[in-house]
Known about the structure:
Layout: E1 23-26, E2 36-40, E3 46-48, E4 59-61, E5 64-65, H1 89-93, E6 94-98, H2 101-109, E7 119-121, H3 131-135, H4 138-147, E8 152-156, H5 165-172, E9 177-182, H6 188-194, H7 201-213, E10 218-225, H8 233-245, E11 251-255, H9 262-273, H10 278-284, H11 293-309
Amino acid sequence: MRWDDLTDGPGRSGALFGTDAVVTRTFDTPEFRGITFHEVRARSIVNRVPGASRMPFEWTVNPYRGCSHACVYCFARKTHSYLDLDTGLGFDSQIVVKTNAPDLLRRELGSHRWTGAHIAMGTNVDCYQRAEGRYRLMPGIIEALRDHANPFSILTKGTLILRDLPLLQEAAAVTDVGISVSVGFTDTALWRTVEPGTPSPAARLGAVRTLTDAGIECGVLMAPVIPFLGDAPEQLRDTVRAVAESGATSVTPLVLHLRPGAREWFTAWLGEHHPHLVGRYERMYAGGSYAPTWYQRQVTRQVHELAAEFGIGPNGRGAPRRISAPARPAPGAPTQLSLL
């Protein structure tokens, strides 16, 4: 495993932490069985999103690497290769925990170089995955953002976010806070196979209801819409109806994209569970990581029409999280992969 001179990707300089900063732990409890945690003291916690990203924000905070949600399509799998870790099962079970994330964030927010730009969380791996139940990094992170009145957003599949509802309310009283919950489909059979470590779609939508009832605006990122498995008209209708019933402020569809690292793992899963679809996927994604534009537009149109039918207003990317134009702090911060 490579820890010395670790960076956020090929060709990038500046070590994030060194070998002497890593402590490896396992816990013999049912929820963590088979998972190894690598506790590190990061040297930086605010990361710059690559300039080519399609995302409407520029800065992120990621307290974890790897994710026990084990979503077979997760685009962030490639990041584990930078550690010489496996991007398949290793990504699901070898979790890097930046134990000093709250203190480090407070220090970086207090720097004279920081201008208060929007910070997005959950855009790489989920900050409310199971590890957060033990390490409890998010309360300190939210407190730091609250105390500096720094705008932020969170994207999650984790219902553990409800633990921090009082802190989110406090932060929302002093700065711009936006929450999005990811629910790509409500098909329980599909959920069990492609997102085996996540709370159920019904549980996630229940969290949306709790957040909105508490005065925290919460949108749903309907992602991913999975071709040939989750895009049937009745599936889209069921999902949008459930989103509307949850009280979500918006629904934003996003079709599955398959980047290197994720593509290989998803294709292997597809060959095992739906071998008849392998050829169709090869043709659909022959042009690269994204489905054809015509297909993306078709899904978006269908979802927006259903949203109008069920009385929920569709939004463009980023709108559920109330993101404003990003400021540009001083250069030199690490970068990360982008969601899109």
